[in-house]
Amino acid sequence: MSKILVVDDSNLARRATRAILEAAGHEVSDAQDGLAAIERYFLDKPELVLLDVTMRDMDGLEVLQRIRSVDPEARIVFVTADVQSSTREMAVAGGASGFVVKPVSSGPLLDAIAEALSGRPA
Amino acid sequence: MIISELQTDAISELINIAFSRSAASLSDLTASRVDLEVPEVSVHPIANITAALHRFVKGDVATVHQVFTGPVAGDAFLLMNFDGAVHLVELLTNGEVVSKGLGASAREVVTEIGNIVMNACLGVFGNLLHVRFSFSVPRLSLDDLGVMVNSLIVDSNPMQHALVVGARFRLRNSEVTGCLVLVLGIASFELFLQEVEAWAERSLRGGANE
After folding, report:
1. List of chain A residues whose C-beta atoms are within 8 Å of the C-beta of residue B205
2. Any chain B CB within 8 A of the CB of A118?
3. Which of B38, B204, B208 is nearest residue A105 as measured by Cβ atoms?
């Protein structure tokens, strides 16, 4: 089981994702904005980050860039309602390991996590 | 109208999902990337919506209005700042210069934009909340915000409430601001909140798409 950081400005999304992950046996920490996410990432050293795109102050694409500029091996899966193809392309170009469309159900989310942790490309 | 913390969180997340889908529809329409800021959601008695709208739109506004019917029934209004509406028309008509009053073809374009954006948004509500909506034909009006709000208040039952969603987004370096306003009667609002809470509970069990 893995340490996973959940980054989302929605309380409901954080709670729902945490419930799915904990039921699957993962250890979960969370952050509600981009700056807190970067701080938690380097404090907790999670094996995987689940990251929303649309957030106040710093969006998920910028968080991805900042984390991977310091840790190029970081595994980051986007969990977002933004279904524009340009967003997915920017995420993949930035090194994202996966992309899950909101609202999330446990099956697709856990599949994307398993795939990212196995090191297969997004 | 008292809204619980769980209902507030769930409405915010539903709006986030719905507006992201609307932004994607707009992106497909304009063949441009749409950068959406986090939408702001609030609920007001119908008589008190002016200040909420003023935070996002001022002066002349283009308003697309659709009546929706079904178990949850009401009126949906999409308000866009006039310059933003003109910018969208220019993007969709390959830079055709738009007159100040919007000509007939420009009005059709704005109406269709409103129709697509509101259907994308309410379609997400319908699918996730298991509520079927039927829509009337959209109608466009161009007015000063004050005139538009006054007519909305006069035409509404004072017991009605409005869910106001303010959004800012950027397309090709231009900012467009707008508000989606859903005006609902008490019975419809209560049913809407019940369905929102049921969806939140499904989400917390890992079944947000059930």
Report:
1. 19
2. no
3. B208
Q: Is A89 on the interface with B (CB under 8 A)?
A: no
CATH class for the region spanning A3-83+90-118: alpha beta
**For the whole model, what pTM was predicted?**
0.88
Percent helix / strand / coil, chain A, rounded to 5: 45, 20, 35
CA atoms of B47 and B60, how far apart (whole Å): 20
pLDDT tens profile A46-80: 999 999 999 988 999 999 999 999 999 999 999 99
Strands B60-69 and B40-45: unpaired
Cβ partners under 8 Å of residue B162, min gap 6: B43, B44, B45, B46, B49, B52, B181, B182, B183, B184
Identify residue A82 by its one-letter amino acid code. Answer: D
Options 3.30.2380.10, 3.30.470.20, 3.90.1310.10, 3.40.1550.10; CATH for B5-204 is: 3.40.1550.10
Residues from chain B that touch A28, judged by Cβ atoms under 8 A, are none
- What are the counts of helices (DSSP H) followed by strands (DSSP E) for chain B? 6, 8
CB B57 within 8 Å of CB B177: yes
DSSP label at residue B71: S
Q: Tell me: the pLDDT tens digits for A9-22?
A: 999 999 999 999 99
